[in-house]
C-alpha cells in the first residue's frame, strides 16, 4: 500500500511508495475536453463546498496540479475532481496536470493515493468516508479486516466492525438522506437507526423530519418512537408518517420548527404508548371537569406509578389566595375529584 | 446433558491444583486449555472485543473468588422484597436470554466458575451461625443459572449435601435447564427447593436462547418431584404481549398436568422490568427482540416496568389461574410495591421482613 508524501519541489512531483520507488512527473496542460468527467472510479466527493476553492483558483490559479491517468480516448481523474470542476466552471479550457501513463500502478494504489491526497488537502465529510469505505470493500475487494484496521484509523474512526457497517450502510442510502446526514450532522447512532429502515420508509421519514428543528437527542427519540411504533403496529414507517395528525402539525404555518417538533413528538408518543395516552386523556378530562382556577394545577404521579395527586398553586394577593382556598374546599364534593382519588 | 458450547478454557494458575478444576477438565476433554497468570489483563483484553457478553459465554474461566460470595439479594428500593440471600458460585450464564440483566451487570464477560469451594462453605457456615432464630433462604441463581453448568461443575450436588444437614436454611436452585440427573439420588432431606423459571413456548423460542423448552423443564421438575424435592416456579419475567393470556394460561395448565401442586412450595410472579442501561445493550445483541416494545416506564427505583394498570391486570389473572389449580398455592410478587400487592391480593405484606416471615411459615409447614 502506498504511504505517500506529497510536496512541490521545483515544479516536480515527488511521490514515495513503501518500496521506495520515487516517481517524478512533469506538469502538463491537458485540455478539459479530453478529461472524462463522468468517470468517478477514484472519486469520493459528496456535497463539496466549492466556494473557497473557486475564489482561490480565481485569485491565484491552480497551486497544485491535478493527477490524471491516460485511458483510451482521453484521461481519467485520480485526484482533483473539485479543482477540475471549478476550472471548467470558470470557463478555462486546460488544467495543469501530472499524468500516469496507462497501467504503471493498479487501481487500488491509485485510489489510495487519491485518499491520501484528499486527506492532506481538505479532509472528508461523513458521506465521503462512507463512499470511500464502500469502494474499498466492494470495488477494490479489500478484505474487511484490512479496511477496519488500516482505513478506519486513516479516517480517524475507531477500528471496529460496527463502525464499518455504519458507514457502509450510509453509502447505500438515498442522496436526499445523505444530504440530510451532512447538513444536520447526524450521529453514527442515528445513521444506524436510519439504516434499519427501508428506502421508502427513509424517504417518508425525511418528509416528516425535514421541516423540524432536531438536535441529536430529539432525532434519536423520534427515530426510536417511529421504529417501535412501526414494530408494535405491524405497519411501515411510511404508513405511520402518512397519518393525518402529522400532516396537520406540519401544515400549521404559525408554528415554529421547535413547536412542530414537540407536537410531532407528542403524536408519536401517543401512538407508541396508547395505554398511557388513554390514562392521560382520562385524567385530563376529569381535571377539566373540576373547573379549577388557572393558578391551581393538579398532577398525577409520574406514569401513574404510585398513589396520590399533587396540587400546586400560585398567588400574589390575599384575594387570589382566598379564591384558591375556596376552590380547593369544594373539590371533595365533585364527582370527578372523587373518581380521581378513589382506590380501585 | 443439555448442550454447553465451550470453545476454550482459561485456567487461572491459582485454581490449577483444585480437584474441582480437574473435574471440569475431565468433563471437557477436547477443549483447548490455556493457563493464565493474570486474569485481570485477560478480562480487560477480552472486554474490548465486539460483543464480549455473547462471546464470553463460550469461554470458560476457572479461577478463585476473593471476597464475599454470599450477599442479600439486591432487591430494589421502595418495593417489597423477599429477604433472599444469593450465593455466587458461578458468574455469567451459557444461556442467552434477550432480557437478561447480566448483560449490563457483569464486568467480567467470561463464563466463570470459582473452584475455592472450601472458602465458600466457610462463608456460608459463618453466615448461618450468626442468625439462629430465622429460617434463611439462599440460592445460586442470581448471577448465573443454578444448573446450566452442573454436568461439568457439580457445585449444586455439593451444596445440596451441605444444606441437607442444616436445620435453619433452605437452598434454592433456580434454572431453565433440565440438568437434574446428578441430583436425583442425593439425600436432600427436603432442604433444597429446585425451581424453574417458566414462560410460554413462544416466548422461550423467541427470547430465551439456548434454554430448555418448556416441556423439558416440566419433565425435569416432575422427575425431581418424584424424588421428593420441593419445587418452586417463577413466572418471571412475565412478558406482556398480544395473546399473553392464552399462552400463560396454557403454560399453567401444562405445568400442573405433570406436577402435583401440593408439592410446590412457592410460585413467584414478576412482570418484565429492566434497568435503564439494559435496553441499548440488549437491542444491540438481539435486534429482533420484542421485550422492549411494551409500555414500560421508569418507577421509583429507576427500573422500567409495565404500567401499573397492566401489571395489576397480569398478576390478578395469573394468580386467579394458579388458584384455580390449587387455592393453597403460595404466590408472591417479586420486586413490587405495596400498592400493587394490595390491588392484586387485597392485602400486602407490611414490609420485606413481613414477607420473609410468611416465607418462613410456608417453608416450615412444607418441609417440617
Short characterization:
With 344 residues, chain A is an alpha+beta fold.
Helix % of chain B is 25-40%
Query: Main β-sheet of chain A: number of strands, strand sense, barrel status?
Result: 4 strands, mixed
How many distinct helices of chain A? 16
Helical proportion of chain A? Answer: 40-55%
Detailed description of the structure:
The complex is a heterodimer of chains A (344) and B (368). Helix content of chain A is 52%, strand content 12%. Chain A has helices at 51-60, 81-89, 107-121, 126-139, 144-154, 161-172, 175-183, 188-195, 199-209, 216-233, 237-241, 244-250, 257-272, 274-289, 318-329, 335-341; strands spanning 8-9, 12-16, 22-25, 28-31, 66-71, 74-79, 94-100, 296-299, 310-313. In chain A, strand 1 and strand 2 (12-16) form a beta hairpin. In chain A, helix 8 runs parallel beside helix 10 (216-233), helix 10 runs parallel beside helix 13 (257-272) and helix 14 (274-289) packs antiparallel against helix 16 (335-341). The model of chain A is unreliable at 1-22 (pLDDT under 50). Chain B has 368 residues and is an alpha/beta fold. Chain B is built from 12 helices and 18 strands. In chain B, helix 1 (19-27) links the parallel strand 1 and strand 2. In chain B, helix 7 runs parallel beside helix 8 (244-258) and helix 8 runs parallel beside helix 10 (308-325). The two termini of chain B are 33 Å apart. Classes of the chains: A alpha+beta (344), B alpha/beta (368). The A-B interface holds A 160-162, 196, 228, 231-232, 273-276, 279, 302-307, 344 and B 50, 287, 290, 292-293, 295, 297-300, 305, 307-310, 337, 339, 343.
Amino acid at each position: 500500500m502506498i504511504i505517500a508524501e506529497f510536496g512541490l519541489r521545483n515544479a516536480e512531483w515527488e511521490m514515495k511508495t513503501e518500496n521506495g520507488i520515487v516517481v517524478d512527473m512533469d506538469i502538463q496542460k491537458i485540455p478539459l475536453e479530453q478529461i472524462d468527467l463522468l468517470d468517478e472510479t477514484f472519486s469520493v466527493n459528496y456535497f463539496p463546498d466549492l466556494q473557497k476553492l473557486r475564489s482561490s483558483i480565481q485569485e491565484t490559479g491552480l497551486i497544485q496540479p491535478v493527477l490524471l491517468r491516460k485511458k483510451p480516448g482521453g484521461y481519467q481523474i485520480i485526484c482533483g475532481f473539485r479543482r477540475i470542476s471549478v476550472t471548467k466552471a470558470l470557463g478555462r479550457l486546460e488544467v495543469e496536470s501530472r499524468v500516469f501513463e496507462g497501467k504503471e500502478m493498479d487501481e487500488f494504489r491509485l485510489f489510495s493515493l487519491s485518499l491520501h491526497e484528499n486527506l492532506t488537502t481538505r479532509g472528508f465529510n461523513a458521506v465521503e468516508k462512507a463512499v470511500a469505505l464502500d469502494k474499498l470493500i466492494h470495488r477494490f475487494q479489500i478484505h474487511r479486516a484490512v479496511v477496519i484496521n488500516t482505513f478506519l484509523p486513516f479516517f480517524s474512526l475507531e477500528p471496529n466492525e460496527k463502525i464499518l457497517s455504519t458507514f457502509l450502510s450510509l453509502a447505500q442510502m438515498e442522496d436526499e438522506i445523505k444530504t440530510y446526514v451532512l447538513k444536520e450532522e447526524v450521529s453514527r447512532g442515528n445513521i444506524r437507526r436510519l439504516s434499519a429502515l427501508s428506502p421508502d420508509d427513509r424517504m417518508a421519514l425525511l418528509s416528516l423530519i425535514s421541516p423540524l428543528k432536531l438536535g441529536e437527542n430529539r432525532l434519536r427519540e423520534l427515530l426510536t418512537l417511529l421504529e417501535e411504533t412501526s414494530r408494535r403496529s405491524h405497519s411501515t414507517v411510511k404508513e405511520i408518517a402518512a397519518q393525518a395528525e402529522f400532516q396537520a402539525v406540519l401544515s400549521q404555518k404559525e408554528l415554529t420548527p421547535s413547536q412542530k417538533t414537540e407536537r410531532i413528538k407528542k403524536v408519536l408518543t401517543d401512538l407508541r404508548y396508547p395505554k398511557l395516552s388513554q390514562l392521560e386523556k382520562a385524567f385530563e378530562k376529569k381535571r377539566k371537569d373540576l373547573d379549577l382556577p388557572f393558578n391551581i394545577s393538579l398532577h398525577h404521579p409520574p406514569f401513574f406509578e404510585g398513589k396520590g395527586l399533587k396540587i400546586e398553586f400560585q398567588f400574589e394577593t390575599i384575594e387570589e389566595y382566598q379564591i384558591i382556598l375556596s376552590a380547593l374546599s369544594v373539590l371533595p364534593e365533585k364527582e370527578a375529584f372523587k373518581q380521581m382519588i378513589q382506590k380501585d | 446433558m443439555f448442550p454447553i458450547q465451550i470453545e476454550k478454557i482459561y485456567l487461572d494458575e491459582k485454581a490449577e491444583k483444585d480437584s474441582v478444576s480437574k473435574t471440569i477438565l475431565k468433563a471437557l476433554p477436547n477443549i483447548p486449555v490455556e493457563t493464565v497468570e493474570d486474569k485481570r489483563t485477560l478480562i480487560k483484553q477480552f472486554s474490548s472485543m465486539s460483543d464480549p457478553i455473547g462471546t464470553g459465554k463460550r469461554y470458560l474461566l476457572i479461577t478463585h473468588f476473593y471476597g464475599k460470595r454470599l450477599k442479600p439479594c439486591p432487591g430494589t428500593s421502595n418495593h417489597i422484597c423477599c429477604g433472599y440471600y444469593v450465593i455466587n458460585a458461578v458468574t455469567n450464564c451459557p444461556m442467552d436470554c434477550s432480557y437478561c440483566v447480566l448483560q449490563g451487570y457483569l464486568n467480567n464477560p467470561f463464563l466463570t466458575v470459582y473452584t475455592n469451594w472450601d472458602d465458600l462453605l466457610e462463608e456460608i457456615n459463618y453466615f448461618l451461625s450468626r442468625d439462629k432464630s430465622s429460617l434463611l433462604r439462599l440460592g445460586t441463581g442470581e448471577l448465573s443459572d443454578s444448573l446450566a453448568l452442573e454436568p461439568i461443575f457439580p457445585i449444586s450436588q455439593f451444596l445440596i449435601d451441605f444444606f441437607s444437614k442444616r436445620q435453619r436454611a433452605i437452598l434454592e436452585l433456580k434454572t431453565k435447564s433440565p440438568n437434574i440427573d446428578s441430583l436425583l439420588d442425593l439425600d436432600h432431606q427436603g432442604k433444597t427447593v429446585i425451581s424453574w423459571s417458566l414462560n410460554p413456548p413462544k416466548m422461550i423460542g423467541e427470547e430465551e436462547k439456548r434454554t430448555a423448552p418448556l416441556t423439558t423443564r416440566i419433565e425435569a421438575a416432575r422427575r425431581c418431584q418424584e424424588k421428593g424435592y420441593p419445587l418452586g416456579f417463577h413466572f418471571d419475567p412475565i412478558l406482556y404481549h398480544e395473546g399473553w393470556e392464552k399462552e400463560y394460561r396454557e403454560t399453567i395448565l401444562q405445568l400442573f398436568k405433570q406436577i402435583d401442586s401440593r408439592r410446590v412450595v412457592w410460585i413467584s410472579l414478576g412482570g418484565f422490568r429492566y434497568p435503564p442501561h439494559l435496553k441499548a445493550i440488549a437491542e444491540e445483541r438481539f435486534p429482533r427482540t420484542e421485550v422492549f416494545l411494551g409500555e414500560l416506564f421508569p418507577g421509583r427505583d429507576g427500573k422500567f416496568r409495565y404500567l401499573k394498570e397492566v401489571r395489576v391486570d397480569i398478576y390478578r389473572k395469573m394468580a386467579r389461574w394458579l388458584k384455580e389449580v390449587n387455592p393453597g398455592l403460595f404466590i408472591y410478587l417479586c420486586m413490587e410495591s405495596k400498592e400493587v400487592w394490595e390491588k392484586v391480593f387485597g392485602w400486602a405484606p407490611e414490609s420485606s421482613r413481613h414477607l420473609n416471615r410468611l416465607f418462613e411459615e410456608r417453608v416450615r409447614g412444607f418441609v417440617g
